[in-house]
Write a structure and sequence with these properties.
With 210 residues, this protein is an alpha/beta fold. It is 40% helix and 11% strand. It contains eight helices and six strands.
Length: 210
């Protein structure tokens, strides 16, 4: 019997991935690099590599990376503040699940980004706890974020299910040994989700499989 649900954040609870891509695209453009959708999917959503991996290949020094990361983060925060990020069916489904399961968010987002994202969503009231990259020393596809959530939940692996939208998230779930349902997005719909326990068409379908 499922007792806890671990949700990814970006792409599952909120439609933020396109804004994160835009903020990185702006940074890379200054260096003559066109961050295409295909590049973003391959590096950020499959391999968990991003802007800094790309720029380091051009010999960029660490102090320069730190400055650019701060610039990118400021751009992303501004985009979050001025764009709609809601996903149809999410709040209604969470409201239905609330009280029946322990609900947890496990995200590779930084805590400051996460707080900006949810400053106006009204979704956090449904969740028992949250794990961001600030609280976990490694991110997906490493299994540690989900193993940390498992430990804090107090439940066994077969009493939990993960809800993801990306290959790196699925790999993290599989490595953690926890069942995973995938809800592909426009950016991840052509990804390889071999090993997923179920592939859903929308967030609203989730209640039907618990």
């Amino acid at each position: 019997m499922i007792k806890a649900i671990f949700f990814d954040n970006d792409g599952i609870l909120v439609d933020t991935e396109k804004l994160y891509m835009q903020s990185n695209k702006i940074i890379l453009k200054d260096f003559g690099i066109d961050l295409t959708t295909e590049m973003y999917i391959e590096n950020y959503l499959k391999r968990s590599k991003g802007t800094w991996h790309i720029l380091r290949q051009f010999g960029m020094k660490e102090d320069e990376v730190i400055k650019l990361r701060e610039k990118r983060n400021n751009i992303y925060n501004e985009l979050l503040k001025h764009n709609s990020i809601g996903i149809d069916g999410v709040e209604e489904t969470l409201d239905h699940l609330y009280g029946k399961y322990k609900l947890v968010i496990v995200t590779s987002s930084r805590r400051d980004h996460f707080e900006t994202i949810h400053s106006s969503t009204g979704l956090l009231k449904y969740f028992d706890f949250v794990i961001t990259s600030t609280e976990c020393p490694v991110t997906k596809p490493d299994p540690l974020p989900y193993l940390t959530a498992l430990d804090q939940s107090g439940f066994k692996k077969d009493e939990c299910v993960i809800v993801e939208d990306s290959e790196r998230g699925l790999k993290s779930a599989i490595a953690a040994g926890i069942n995973c349902y995938v809800i592909p997005t426009e950016l991840t719909k052509d990804s390889d989700f071999t090993g997923a326990d179920k592939i859903l068409e929308s967030f609203s379908e989730l209640s039907n499989y618990l």
